[in-house]
């Protein structure tokens, strides 16, 4: 098995890259473009309330740099703290992007934690799915909430590894494992990854993909980190597919003597 015939499928669309990246916090649009290119990402998420994707004709438009012909743009509802605002933001994105219906829903609880408000998230997901949106949803690592969101019709469940922008890595791998056990749609880790090894861990666990922003944009050299993340995601996926050796309590010689002349 090779990664060439191992696509990520989201809402029936096939992708080669399992790294999804955000567009916030970069120095300028050129750095954003170079980092995205180095990451190999095919899905690029954009905060509609913070980024110009056509709302302001006088300002630089991100979509002039990150072309929707080359990338799948994933409008997100960052900055929304209730269902109503999140739904309105998705509708605005759909209008600005000629009926584009794949969105990333995030409804946040407060400024300090940026933790998802799951009650409002569920409310918004319900409205959006009924309105024809394909909803990839950022949520907590609560398996019950994750299942509820899947049952509502979300196309992907995206539990946080840790708080957005914290770089603390995956704090509760057990819960993410339970979510993967219960959900049939792709489960992606979204938020909290700080460096390449943490992205690899998510993939080794069997997550379908990872979405990140801060680890790349906040690195000393974002373009180099984007390239590291690409490799980490691929290595993690390969390791997952290859299957880890069983953990053993005691040593087991790397060059066993059994069956050799000396060992008889
Ligand atoms: C970019 C995005 O959509 C986020 O949800 C989030 O910002 C990702 O989290 P990190 O910045 O911690 O990677």
From TrEMBL:
Annotated residues for binding of 1-deoxy-D-xylulose 5-phosphate: 165, 191-192, 213-214
SUPFAM superfamilies: ThiG-like
Protein's cellular compartments: Cytoplasm
InterPro entries assigned: Aldolase_TIM (IPR013785), Thiazole_synthase_ThiG (IPR033983), ThiG (IPR008867)
A biological process term (GO) from this entry: thiamine diphosphate biosynthetic process
Any one GO cellular component localisation term in the record: cytoplasm
Entry's EC annotation: 2.8.1.10
Active site: 104 (schiff-base intermediate with dxp)
CDD domains membership: ThiG
Domain Thiazole synthase ThiG: 10-256
Pathway noted in the entry: Cofactor biosynthesis; thiamine diphosphate biosynthesis
Keyword terms of this UniProt record: Cytoplasm, Schiff base, Thiamine biosynthesis, Transferase
Molecular-function GO terms, alphabetical: thiazole synthase activity
Catalysed reaction equations from the record: [ThiS sulfur-carrier protein]-C-terminal-Gly-aminoethanethioate + 2-iminoacetate + 1-deoxy-D-xylulose 5-phosphate = [ThiS sulfur-carrier protein]-C-terminal Gly-Gly + 2-[(2R,5Z)-2-carboxy-4-methylthiazol-5(2H)-ylidene]ethyl phosphate + 2 H2O + H(+)
Any Pfam family: ThiG
Source domain of life: Bacteria
Main location: cytoplasm
Quaternary structure (record): Homotetramer. Forms heterodimers with either ThiH or ThiS.
Family membership: Belongs to the ThiG family.
Its biological purpose: Catalyzes the rearrangement of 1-deoxy-D-xylulose 5-phosphate (DXP) to produce the thiazole phosphate moiety of thiamine. Sulfur is provided by the thiocarboxylate moiety of the carrier protein ThiS. In vitro, sulfur can be provided by H(2)S.
Protein name as catalogued: Thiazole synthase
Originating species: Neptuniibacter caesariensis
């Amino acid at each position: 098995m090779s990664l060439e015939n191992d696509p990520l499928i989201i809402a029936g669309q096939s992708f080669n890259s399992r790294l999804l990246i955000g567009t916030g916090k970069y120095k300028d649009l050129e750095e954003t473009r170079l980092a995205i290119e180095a990451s190999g990402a095919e899905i690029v998420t954009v905060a509609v309330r913070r980024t110009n994707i056509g709302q302001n004709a006088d300002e630089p438009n991100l979509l002039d740099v990150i072309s929707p012909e080359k990338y799948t743009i994933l409008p997100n509802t960052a900055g929304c703290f209730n269902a109503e605002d999140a739904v309105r933001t998705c509708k605005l994105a759909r209008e600005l992007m000629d009926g584009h219906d794949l969105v990333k829903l995030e409804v946040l609880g407060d400024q300090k934690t940026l933790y998802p408000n799951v009650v409002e998230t569920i409310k918004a997901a319900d409205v959006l799915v009924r309105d024809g949106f394909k909803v990839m949803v950022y949520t907590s690592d609560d398996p019950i909430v994750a299942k509820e969101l899947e049952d509502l019709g979300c196309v992907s469940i995206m539990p946080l590894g840790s708080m957005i922008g914290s770089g603390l890595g995956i704090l509760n791998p057990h819960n993410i494992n339970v979510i993967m056990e219960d959900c049939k749609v792709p489960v992606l880790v979204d938020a909290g990854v700080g460096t390449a090894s943490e992205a690899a861990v998510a993939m080794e666990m069997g997550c379908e993909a990872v979405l990140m922003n801060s680890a790349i944009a906040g690195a000393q050299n974002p373009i180099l980190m984007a390239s590291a993340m690409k490799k980490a995601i691929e290595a993690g996926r390969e390791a997952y597919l290859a299957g880890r050796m069983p953990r053993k309590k005691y040593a087991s010689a790397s060059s066993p003597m059994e069956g050799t002349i000396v060992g008889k």
